[in-house]
Amino acid sequence: MSEAIKLFIEDARAVSIEATAKILNLKFRASGSEHPQPCPNCGGTDTFAFNSKKEKWNCRAGGIGGNDGIGMAAHCEDLDVKRRDGFLEACSIVLGLPIPDEGERESDEDRAARLKRLDDRRLQNEADATAKAASQVDFREQERQKARGIYDAAARVGRYGRPVADYLMARGCGDVGALQWLRYASDLSYWHGQDGRGRPLELHCGPAMVAPFIDRELCAIGCHITWIDLKRPPKYRPVFSDPDTGELLPSKKMRGSKKGGLIPLFGDPQARRWVGGEGIENGAAFGAWEAFREDTFYFAAGDLGNLSGPAEPSSRFAHPTLKKLDAKGVARAVMVAGPIPKADQDADDAMWIGHQVDELVLLADGDSERVMTAAAMARARARHARPGRVIPIVWPRPGYDFSKMAAEADTGT
């Protein structure tokens, strides 16, 4: 190997992953060092990523990765680094310089064939991505239609939906009477797993509270289902378990879309004061405590992630006490999603809040892990902050949620 080729290779190996990514016109996220994206060679959605801090890259679709720019350039440009000409061509791409005269090069025929192969693959990747997106849209709309069907078939709470009112009263939410948003289904199936013939398995069929997830146009995009058993305190919900494993299953389910939506409970969404948190019972119990103010809209997010949205990766922090064992059996601190909202997130990555809202009361759960919940609530406040908007976070006493507090107050315990 000539001295010129040695220096050429050494210079190429010194080029960082970040610099190589810029040469290859790869995508960079607005913040952080991990940059997931479709693979320029294999396609996909987030199958490829490079880390500018750790100096690593990886393609899950191709089952390949490495820790230098040469290998990353070779994969993206479909070059074989096991061949001398392929390796030097990758070095040339990384450096932006021609291969020295004495170095091996791919032939014009090989180059033309490689570039055509790349173009054909990229066109196919684009076609596959378009078809997949269309399929996902169709599937999502089908699920939304099923959710709307469940909700539309349920009875309004009032004359016919008394079990929902009784359930909420038992959970400390007071006598809600007739309701605009929440509904009652007398016989709703709980499906889980498959039977011996591969058909969906019905574990239970019984009464349930059905609530909609609505978007900004107040259109139902999904539904939240809570099965009811008024003979089973303190939650007054049936107990389900997996018939194969015995694992306990949730007595609540969500159908259709929840992302970006919210569950309306009481009041008018045009109100300037909103009150809500993660679950239906929490928001309803707090509303009952303040006598369902006429100037307030009460809501639920469905879960903590939909309330707060994703966190900025750089804001992660180590839990002060919780630890877990890593692959080597070493106890390490559990990492917690931080209080800072992700910078480049979509509008529907968390529930929407009306533009007119100038007071947003966020309800925390005191029976959830305190540190993680506090970080998520701080993130929710930061995400929904607007000039002139007041966002207090209200906590129940430790170990409780507002529903449990209200229920115990009603019974004098």
Plain-language structure description:
By secondary structure, this protein is an alpha+beta fold. It has two domains: 3-106, DNA Primase, Chain A (Alpha-Beta Complex); 155-411, no CATH class. It has helices spanning 3-13, 17-23, 69-76, 84-95, 108-153, 162-170, 280-289, 304-308, 370-384, 402-411; strands spanning 34-39, 43-51, 56-59, 64-66, 155-156, 183-194, 200-214, 220-227, 240-241, 248-249, 252-256, 263-266, 273-277, 296-300, 317-325, 331-336, 359-363, 393-394. A five-stranded antiparallel beta sheet has the order 5-6-7-8-11. Strands 12-14-13-17-18 form a five-stranded mixed beta sheet. It has a four-stranded antiparallel beta sheet with strand order 1-2-3-4. A hairpin with a 5-residue loop joins strand 7 (200-214) and strand 8 (220-227). Helix 2 runs parallel beside helix 3 (69-76) and helix 3 packs across helix 4. The radius of gyration is 28 Å and the shape is elongated. The N and C termini lie far apart (85 Å). The model has no long low-confidence stretch (mean pLDDT 90).
